[in-house]
């Protein structure tokens, strides 16, 4: 099976984990601190404003806690987004307010966000679809002008930038994902950033039960009864650990190579699918934008998208669509809400395999299978699509 996502892990990561085991300290410790510092350097932000956490989802819930969201608050977010963002908002009693997205980029524009604002809007949460930065600079300006907190769900955009500025640092709060399907992989893991140093300090405490002194060793330097916790706010256990941080340190050194390979694969898709009638490719990146190339998406007429996906699956090529429009799913179904861009994208879009482990031969297999599928579906009297291997029998 040619997978749509796949981690790229090897001996260096295994050696790093073995060193953690040998140290007898697998929890949060020196490697966690090192990863926070190196990831902060990658973002070009102060290290004390970055917290290594156990998932991007945890970061979204942490953002909701820092904003003290609750009943009566509205939070605007694109309907084309992962359900974790809406869950983090709804769990507080606040109301997710869904905005539309551009049908081609699957990212919201500043106009989409502004149209969805209400008098009760307390925050805006924006995803960078597939690692494409989107209209983030203009959205940040809208939020600053309105005095609204901007949270960047940077799950897809670990290496994405606009004019050299890292995605995740345009807004006030941000969170990244390092799960097993992402560009940078730690197994499970994520990072959290707060622009305000005081909020960053509070985030670090809330990520570990609200403890002001997260380490008993640290507490022993300032208290004669270091075993007594000092908790002034309710928190959770969202922290990362040295085992996953050790993997992350290796992966961070490899990140530029991962992104370069993803870019090359995307370029092959661009080159060899451009002439397939009925297939629409991702729009070119605007000048000054750099993508993490997490997704590569193609779009079809809605009546053939699912048939193409089934054809590819029958030939051991796994595809998918992320993310189904949230305003359509049962938990968030919004009667009467029409978001035409999000709805059209959800009906027409398919993600093709994209990860550094793909060989050029596998990329060619995907391209050939997609081309044959579309041409076969569009041809009169369509019969079953056959692979080259089957034809050679």
Nutshell version of this structure?
39% of the residues lie in helices and 12% in strands.
Describe the model.
- It is an enzyme of class 2 (transferase).
- This is DegT/DnrJ/EryC1/StrS family aminotransferase.
- Keywords: Aminotransferase, Pyridoxal phosphate, Transferase.
- It comes from Streptomyces lancefieldiae.
- The chain is globular, with a radius of gyration of 22 Å.
- The relative contact order is 0.16.
- The strands form three sheets. It has a seven-stranded mixed sheet with strand order 1-9-8-5-4-2-3, sandwiched between helices. Strands 7-6-10 form a three-stranded antiparallel sheet, with no helix packed on it. Strands 11-12 form a two-stranded antiparallel ribbon.
- It has 393 residues and is α/β, with parallel strands linked by helices.
- The longest helix is centred in the middle third of the chain and has 32 residues.
- The C terminus is likely disordered.
- Helix 3 runs parallel beside helix 4 and helix 3 packs across helix 7.
- It is built from 13 helices and twelve strands.
- It folds into two domains: 241 residues, Aspartate Aminotransferase, domain 2; 127 residues, Aspartate Aminotransferase, domain 1.
CATH class of the largest domain: Alpha Beta
CATH domain topology of the largest domain: Aspartate Aminotransferase, domain 2
Work out the count of structural domains. 2
Widest beta sheet: strand line-up: 1-9-8-5-4-2-3
In the CATH hierarchy, the architecture of the largest domain is: 3-Layer(aba) Sandwich
Share in β-strands: 5-15%
Unreliable sequence segments? 383-393
In total, how many beta strands? 12
Tally of contiguous helical segments? 13
SSE succession: HHEHEHEHEHEEEEEHHHEEHHEHH
- Provide the CATH superfamily of the largest domain: Type I PLP-dependent aspartate aminotransferase-like (Major domain)
């Amino acid at each position: 099976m040619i997978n749509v996502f796949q981690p790229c892990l090897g001996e260096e990561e295994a050696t790093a984990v073995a060193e953690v085991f040998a140290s007898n300290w697998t929890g949060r410790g020196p490697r966690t601190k090192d990863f926070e510092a190196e990831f902060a350097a990658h973002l070009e932000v102060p290290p004390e404003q970055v917290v290594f956490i156990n998932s991007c989802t945890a970061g979204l819930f942490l953002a909701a806690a820092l904003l003290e969201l609750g009943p009566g608050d509205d939070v605007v977010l694109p309907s084309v987004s992962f359900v974790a963002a809406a869950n983090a908002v709804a769990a507080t009693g606040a109301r997710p307010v869904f905005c539309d997205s551009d049908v081609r980029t699957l990212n919201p524009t500043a106009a989409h966000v502004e149209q969805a604002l209400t008098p009760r809007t307390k925050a805006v949460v924006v995803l960078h679809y597939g690692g494409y930065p989107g209209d983030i600079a203009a959205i940040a300006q809208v939020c600053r002008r309105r005095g609204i907190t901007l949270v960047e769900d940077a799950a897809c955009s670990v290496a994405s930038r606009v004019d050299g500025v890292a995605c995740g640092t345009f807004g006030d709060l941000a969170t990244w994902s390092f799960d097993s399907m992402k560009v940078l992989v730690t197994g499970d893991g994520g990072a959290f950033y707060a622009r305000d140093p005081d909020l960053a300090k509070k985030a670090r405490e809330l990520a570990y039960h609200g403890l002001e002194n997260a380490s008993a060793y640290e507490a022993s330097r300032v208290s004669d009864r270091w075993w007594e916790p000092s908790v002034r706010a309710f928190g959770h256990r969202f922290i990362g650990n040295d085992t996953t941080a050790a993997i992350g340190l290796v992966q961070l050194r490899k990140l530029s190579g991962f992104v370069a390979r993803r870019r090359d694969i995307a370029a092959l898709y661009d080159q060899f699918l451009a002439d397939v009638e009925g297939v629409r490719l991702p729009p070119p990146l605007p000048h000054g934008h750099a993508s993490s190339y997490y997704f590569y998406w193609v779009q079809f007429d809605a009546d053939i998208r699912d048939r193409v996906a089934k054809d590819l699956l029958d030939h051991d090529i796994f595809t998918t669509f992320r993310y189904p429009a949230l305003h359509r799913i049962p938990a968030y179904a919004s009667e009467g809400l029409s978001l035409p861009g999000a709805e059209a994208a959800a009906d027409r879009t398919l993600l093709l395999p994209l990860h550094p482990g793909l060989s050029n031969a596998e990329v060619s297999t995907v391209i050939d299978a997609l081309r044959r599928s579309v041409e076969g579906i569009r041809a009169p009297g369509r019969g079953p699509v056959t692979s080259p291997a089957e034809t050679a029998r």
